[in-house]
Amino acid sequence: MSCCAPGAEMALDLVNTGSVLPSSQEIRLASRSLGDDLHQTDLSVPTVHCAGCIQTIETALGKLDRVESARVNLSTKRVSVRWRGDEVPPFVVALGRLGYQAHLFPSEVGDKDRTLSDLIRAVAVAGFAAGNIMLLSVSVWSGAEGATRDLFHWVSALIAIPALAFAGGIFFRSAWNALRHGRMNMDVPIAVGVSLAYAMSLYETINHGDHAYFDASVSLLFFLLIGRTLDHVMRERARTAVKGLSQLAAHGAMVLRSDGARDYLPVGEIEPGMRLLIAAGERIPVDGKIIQGTSDLDCSLASGESTPKNVAPGEAVQAGVLNLTGPLTIEATAAAKDSFLAEMVRLMEAAEGGRAHYRRIADRVSALYAPVVHLTAFATFLGWMAVTGDWHRAITIAIAVLIITCPCALGLAVPIVQVVAARRLFENGIMVKDGSAMERLATIDTAVFDKTGTLTLGQPRLVNASSIDPAMLAVAGDMATHSRHPFSKAIAGFAHPGGQYKFDAVTEHPGFGIEATGAGSTWRLGRRGWAGWRARTGGEGKHGGTVLTKDGFIVATFDFEDALRADAKAAIGQLSHAGVSVEMLSGDTAGACGEVAEMLGVKDFVPCLLPSGKVERIETLAKDGHKVLMVGDGLNDTPALRAAHVSIAPATAADIGRNAADFVFLRESLLAVPLALDVSRKAGHLIRQNIAIAIVYNAVAVPIAILGHATPLLAAIAMSASSVLVIGNALRLHGFGANATLQVIQKVGRSAVSYSA
Amino acid sequence: MTTLLYLIPVALFLGALGVSGFVWALRSGQYEDLDGAAERILIDRDDKPER
């Protein structure tokens, strides 16, 4: 067992009662074929965090049949498993047994990040050039004269050329692009400053001048590229992680032709009137009508309702729901583009306007900054021309102004803080899509929660376990391990390890329950009316009454309840404390909402809402001037996630929901929400401080440059100092984050204890 | 002064060597899991090192 998954045995229970494991079909669809019968599956395992974890996982998975190799990537918290054969090895179950919860992660073919390696290469080249030119410049500053100085200047010029062409290309292209479309961005002053400085230095070198600015123009590029790279890392890494975390909507279905032939067709090619075969454990790909078979459907993705729905021929089913127990034949009534799923996507796109007007702080600052810089430099040039009439001197000073106002500190200020903050959040199991999400989260004053699947786990939990005969509970547990039904999963958590009871045969009756025979008795676990065929039944409970019977007589009754998500109450308390008003929206009945609201201390809730109703509620709040945070998981929450100012979804959310959300939290605890808010607000403070530092620096440095006192040495020192100051300030977030991690671990530890009690 | 004529090229060559080494390491994926690399040193392995 690993050192760092405390109570991994407990985690076993959590997994059993916890999220729906991806079926082997889903895993196969998400894997990538490497040719030669070899497949690769990428899994996201958020709780991996040390050498012990790496070793435990790699050795355990490596021992499985048909698994070629398993490799843990600790930075991205992924495990890639290579396996052979048609059958998928049970690695998700194996991980669950070790205490690690895994989510599917479809591997993208071209998943190498081209831009990032381009940026890093540019940083390396610029760094090399800057370092060498600096060395030569130091010699010049310390008094090299005449021919030696000229030689050094020429060598510098030569080194700077490839650096400008290669590393500077990123800025030149961006600046040219902006100018061509009649816009201004931060890259324009950089491009102008860098190329003017180079041209001027070259002119000086040719004419045996004293000063050259090669070092300034190249080290400027170097610093800016660092900022650019950090910004990119921050956005891209989390974005692909979020994109990849997929539980997969159905990608296709088995179509039954009129001549009896069977074809597997992708979703896009399914047309109304086709008959589809849906096996137990598969998702229904399009809206349809059942023509054969009975089963239980998990509609939580579509409606947020966690209790499985029993269905029979003639009933309509919606795309995206999970078929739990029996095979079904359905007739498609709509093409994929007209289905419920597509309807949600349309609603989502319509609701998009909510945040379209938002502009990142860096963009807003640079929109002001660029014109000011150019005007200042130009005015300096005009001023010196007017005073001295020496155009050479005027241009030199204007360039010094342009360089000294370099948006270095500004270019670093925002991304460095966001990277540090995103890192903190990532370590706490929260992924951020991009920096603007944190900026938006910092401004919220209202939080809206969905009920099912967000405040609650969306999975039933056995509540009367203590009042059931332990022997009977164990029998039920062993039977329940044979089924994927959510109630079964809840009961299966109480099975004896290894299975104590030996049954001769176990069969699942779709829509009714599980039947097992052993030692001359017939056991049934399921619906009261079906299982207790000799007992006088009746008194169907809240969930239809699930019972265990022996030869037709009821020996145990099970009551289920949707469990609250860990720390839900604490999270809501912390949000209120942070000055955020909390509201709950749900598609569920007023009674069910009221119960949860009271338990959590939420005053405002709106029940019985359709997906569009949630969007309307959020829009009303926005119209009243509130900045709304939406926390939700279901497909039905997706439009609301998009409509809100900023949104958070749990990793168990529907694929589409995760894509719509700005933050995704991987762990069960809802404390992720106040933590994300806290870190974002802290990050916001630091960003504003950093911008202030950059502005103060300019206020001091620019007059010096305008007055013509800025030598290259002074410019280089000032520039580096401002950058280092900004980076140092951003790193202060580090200490804060460490405390927060500790808090969450303590909280999680406590909740795990109460879970097992 | 004449020493500079070969010292500068030598310095530049060594620098370029460093840059190309870095680019090679980057291409061969050695920067993909920095945290993992730091932790893996703690793992005992009987078998040969992985590629």
Word description of this protein:
- The complex is a heterodimer of chains A (757) and B (51).
- Chain A is an alpha+beta fold and 757 residues long.
- A seven-stranded mixed beta sheet of chain A has the order 15-28-27-26-16-24-25, with helices on both faces. A six-stranded antiparallel beta sheet of chain A has the order 7-6-8-14-9-12, with no helix packed on it. In chain A, strands 1, 2, 3, 4 and 5 form a five-stranded antiparallel beta sheet that branches.
- In chain A, strand 6 and strand 7 form a beta hairpin.
- In chain A, helix 8 (187-206) packs antiparallel against helix 9.
- Chain A starts with 7 loop residues before the first helix and ends with a helix.
- Chain B is built from two helices and no strands.
- Chain B is elongated, with a radius of gyration of 18 Å.
- Chain B: InterPro entries: Cyt_oxidase_maturation_cbb3.
Largest interface pair: A-B, 23 and 24 residues
Alpha-beta classification of chain B = mainly alpha
Question: Averaged pLDDT of chain A, please?
Answer: 77
**Total strand segments of chain A:** 28
Structural class of chain A: alpha+beta
SS element count, helices of chain B: 2
Low-confidence stretches of chain A: 1-20, 244-248, 737-757
Number of helices of chain A: 27
Number of strands of chain B: 0
Nearest-angstrom radius of gyration of chain B? 18 Å
Biggest sheet character of chain B: none
Order of helical and strand elements of chain B:
HH
Q: Work out the oligomeric state of the chains in this entry.
A: heterodimer
Q: Give average pLDDT of chain B, whole number.
A: 79
What separation lies between the terminal Cα atoms of chain A? 22 Å
Q: How much helical structure, as a percent, in the residues of chain B? A: 55-70%
Spatial gap, N to C terminus of chain B: 48 Å
InterPro entries (chain B): Cyt_oxidase_maturation_cbb3
Pfam families (chain B): FixS (PF03597)
Protein name (chain B): Cbb3-type cytochrome oxidase assembly protein CcoS
Transmembrane segments (chain B): 6-26
